[in-house]
UniProtKB/TrEMBL annotation:
Alphabetic keyword roster: Membrane, Transmembrane, Transmembrane helix, Transport
Membrane-protein topology: Multi-pass membrane protein
Keyword Transport applies: yes
UniProt xrefs under SUPFAM superfamilies: MFS general substrate transporter
Entries under InterPro entries matching the protein: Atg22-like, ATG22/LtaA_families, MFS_trans_sf
Organism listed in the record: Nocardioides ganghwensis
Protein's name according to its UniProt entry: MFS transporter
Ranges annotated as spanning the membrane: 28-50, 70-91, 103-120, 126-146, 167-186, 198-217, 255-276, 296-317, 324-342, 348-372, 393-410, 416-434
């Protein structure tokens, strides 16, 4: 153990390592919702429930006639728009409190509660499922803001890519493990004496229980840290938070590199999120695979993504996060192009596509998180990460909307998937304009040896 100048042991690295290990487990916990619910089961099951209520192959959504096949995209669109309005205020609140881990757990357990209510989506009551999913997804987004804001507190600039990538790897491992259990349950539901619908409902419930249970690890292992460099604003908690938010909004022009990256991120991440949320619908409705097969493909994606996240973290250590992300975006372009040509009910090409998605999925997202953390000032981590998630969600409606509209006009999910290539092209071009070293200096952070 190293010694400081006064002969006192420097225990900060040990304390950070302990918190990092606890922090990894929130990715492990919430990935159950991201995979089993959002990624695989909710969309197709919502369509099946909505089809029971459909009249002339249409259901009414706020007075509009919508095809059941497009309903999941529209539900996600609405959820992301609402969260985009809420998250910046949440970020300002989180930066003013020393109780970040309590906020994290509170949002996680609330989200798990609403996710658990999906068990009761039966018959033709698709509206109940849509509302509870929206509430669960809002809590999921809020917890992600707080969780990401903890990353700069428990890691140094030079260590951040590794820590973020390892967190994503834990997430894909945890989500994949639960998905494996649900794959068995849904695929062999007859063996367990269950209908397919009941097997899906139990799987949805299992994700909620998993999310809630494993959140206890970061809740117990993380420490609450005092906020730093907080703006002095008068009033109560909410009034002070709005005041700090207003100050930060005025100061954003002082961080042009961070803003450029946010613009790039909102495009390429929009493409990623839309592929993730609509892939199961594409596989079931367009390619003709049963739910069990798509669960198996997602299982493949999850476990490949564990290695992909760790691999991208190692590549970033020598090539820099920006260049590594750009390479990943090139692979994403190939993936959505391949979606045009996969033959119906052809399993091998589907598995190859799933492996490619797994390779780049965790890596691009993990490095985007750690890369952005270098471009934001200390003391405003939650606020800037709230913009990060709000801009992501404020435009994620565009990806799902484009997907839904292309499907509505063409009647095929193939051109809908391919249309997402524009998000990766524009995001990559904007990312190429980001001056990493200048952005780190503007934020007042230390410049790592490799950027």
């Amino acid at each position: 153990m190293s010694e400081t100048g006064g002969g006192i042991a420097n225990v900060k690295p040990l304390a950070q390592a302990k918190e990092q290990r606890a922090w990894y487990f929130y990715d492990w916990a919430n990935s159950a919702f991201a995979t089993t619910v959002s990624g695989v089961l909710f969309g197709p099951y919502l369509i099946a429930i909505a089809e029971e209520a459909a009249v002339g192959d249409r259901v009414s959504v706020l007075g509009l006639s919508v095809a059941p096949g497009a309903l999941p995209a529209y539900v996600i669109t609405f959820s992301t728009l609402v969260s985009a309005l809420i998250l910046p205020v949440l970020g300002a609140v989180a930066d003013r409190t020393s109780r970040k881990k309590d906020l994290l757990a509170g949002f996680a357990w609330s989200g798990a509660f609403f996710a658990g209510l999906l068990f009761f989506m039966t018959g033709d009551n698709w509206q109940f499922g849509a509302i509870t999913f929206i509430l669960a997804n809002l809590c999921f987004a809020a917890s992600a803001v707080v969780n990401d804001s903890i990353l700069p507190i428990i890691s140094t600039e030079s260590d951040r890519d590794r820590v973020s990538s390892r967190g994503w790897a834990y997430g894909y491992a945890g989500g994949g493990l639960l998905l494996a259990l649900n794959f068995v349950l849904v695929s062999f539901h007859d063996t367990f004496g269950l209908t397919e619908g009941m097997a899906v409902r139990i799987s949805l419930l299992s994700a909620a229980v998993w999310w809630a249970a494993f959140t206890f690890i970061p809740f117990r292992g993380l420490q609450n840290h005092q906020p730093v460099d907080v703006e002095q604003v008068e009033g109560g908690v909410l009034q002070r938070s709005f005041g700090q938010l207003w100050i930060t909004l005025k100061e954003l022009r002082n961080y042009p590199v961070a803003l450029t990256f946010l613009l790039a991120y909102l495009f390429f991440n929009d493409g990623i999120q839309t592929v993730i949320s609509q892939a199961s619908v594409y596989g079931v409705e367009e390619l003709g695979f049963p739910q069990g097969t798509m669960l198996g493909v997602y299982l493949l994606v999850q476990f490949v993504a564990v290695g992909g996240a760790l691999l991208f973290g190692r590549i970033a250590a020598t090539r820099g996060a920006k260049n590594t992300i750009l390479g990943g975006l090139g692979i994403w372009m190939l993936i959505v192009t391949a979606g045009l040509f996969i033959p119906e009910k052809s399993l091998v090409p589907l598995l190859l596509l799933g492996a490619a998605i797994g390779l780049v999925l965790g890596g691009t997202q993990a490095l985007a998180r750690s890369y952005f953390s270098l471009l934001i000032p200390r003391g405003k981590e939650a606020e800037f990460f709230s913009f990060y998630h709000a801009m992501e969600r404020g435009t994620s409606w565009f990806g799902t909307l484009v997907f839904g509209l292309v499907y509505t006009f063409t009647g095929s999910y193939r051109p809908a998937i391919f249309a997402l290539i524009i998000f990766f092209v524009v995001g990559g071009l904007l990312l190429m304009r980001v001056d990493t070293a200048k952005g780190i200096r503007d934020a007042g952070n230390d410049v790592p040896a490799v950027i």
